[in-house]
Amino acid sequence: MSDEVAFTVARGKGPWIWSTDERRFADYLMGAGPMVLGHAHPRVVSAIAEQAAIGTHYFLLNQRAQELAAKICHLVPCAESVKFCANGSEANFYALRLARAFTGRTKVLKFDGAFHGHSDYAVQSLRAEPDRNDRHVVSDSAGVPRQISDTVVIAPYNDIERTRQLTEPIAHEIAAILVEPVQRAFMPAPGFLEGLRALADKTGALLVFDEVVTGFRLALGGAQEYFGVTPDLCALGKVLGGGLPVAAVAGRADVMELTIPGRPDDGRSAFMSGTLNGNPLGCAAGLATLEVIEELGAPAKLKEKGETLAAGLREIAKRLSVPLQTIGPPSILQVVFGVGPIDNAEVLAASRQDAAHRFGIEMTRRGVFCSPGKLYVSLAHTDETHNLFFEMAEQSMRAVRDQGLLG
Question: Do 61 and 199 fall within a single domain?
Fold first, then answer.
């Protein structure tokens, strides 16, 4: 957060958060996505309190973890088996470890500008650059050995032909094709995800969907249900924990069984454990969240709320002659200043990101909190919060325009 508008959160309720100096903000970040029901939802609060009264941690298989795993297997198409961890970064990391163990291969194909968390493998070519040499993989963090970068192949998102070209010479070395089915807010081009599924089948690599953001939002079964493409493994997080640190790897049983302690020693056993994995408090919050989402048919409601937000933004921009567009699924909108198709990280990197950053600052100054350009819609957002959003968006767009950031 910019120092210009920095604040410390004291509490939240529904679609609102309050700072320690008692300023109120309509929250359109929603914890960077997890708070899909809004802050302090009564069902989630009750579930946490009930579980806390009988124990917050056991380091043993527990009832809440079993129930949440069963719910995941019921909802998510690829989920024949589930293993819990603490956050989305870990889920993606473990999915890659499993893919290497299962295939006996070392390389991972990921996409330029994709965010898969904090692991050494995930921070390769994280920041997209226009006209990047696809074969030149660089770490975006100090402290990562060059040898790690040598195991990662970077392809441009939404370019299936270039992805095939990069894969062909090393097809026998690729363990996993790791992709956000909706990369940040870039919708997949027609046939792109289907092309990755076919490429994985052809090469023997595992297709891994990073559904940390899209899981349970686009559809009850996530992006894989929404787009009709089933991966071998997926990483889940954010919404899954209902605001608590819960994540999971889910997927094919024959792959997931490699994590079972004491399995026959065939050289493929993969270590996956953690003191707080499957924590009952977090699983209780996650289970309550998924139950409410399922009962209310949340994905359709989130889509409707997001479409209203996007249409209102575009109408304001048109009225002010501001070159603004919204990209992404309706419930995970991104505001982009500029014209022309925005379908991958390279194109976005060349847009007026300074204007988007300023827009976020101006909105926060006016009592609507959103990260620069990125908006997460929740079931708690109402006509009241949307109307406040539109009023402040018009003022903020004028400020961005008048500051000369669109010239």
Answer: yes
Cα 298 from Cα 304, distance rounded (Å): 10
pLDDT at 139: 84
Lowest mean pLDDT among 29-43, 137-151, 233-247, 306-320: 137-151
Q: Quote the CA–CA distance of 348 and 390 in Å, as a whole number.
A: 24
CATH number of 58's domain = 3.40.640.10
Characterise 85 by phi-psi region: left (phi > 0), alpha (psi -120 to 50), beta (else). beta
Between the alpha carbon of residue 99 and those of residues 21, 204, 232, the distances in Å are: 48, 10, 9
Tell me how far apart the alpha carbons of residues 79 and 70 are, in angstroms, rounded to a whole number. Answer: 9
Which one, of 123, 75, 57, lies nearest residue 96 by Cα? 123
For residue 296 the two structure tokens come to 């209310």
Contact 218, 329 (CB under 8 A): yes
pLDDT of 133 > 60? The answer is no
Judge if 358 and 313 occupy the same domain: yes
- Token readout for 334 is 């991104």
Q: What is the pTM of this model?
A: 0.94
Using alpha carbons, list the distances in angstroms from residue 214 to 103, 187, 369: 27, 11, 21
Which two three-digit tokens encode residue 401?
Answer: 């325009």
State the chain's mean pLDDT as an integer: 93
- 388: domain range? 9-32+297-402
Q: Which residue has the tokens 């304001």?
A: 316
Give how far Cα 209 sits from Cα of 31, 231, 298, Å. Answer: 22, 6, 21
User: Within this chain, do residues 27 and 49 fall inside the same structural domain, yes or no?
Assistant: no
349-362 pLDDT per residue, tens: 777 888 888 999 99
Flag whether pLDDT at 332 surpasses 70. Answer: yes
CB 172, CB 333: distance < 8 Å: no
pLDDT digits (tens, 9 = 90+) for 168-209: 999 999 999 999 999 989 999 999 999 999 999 999 999 999
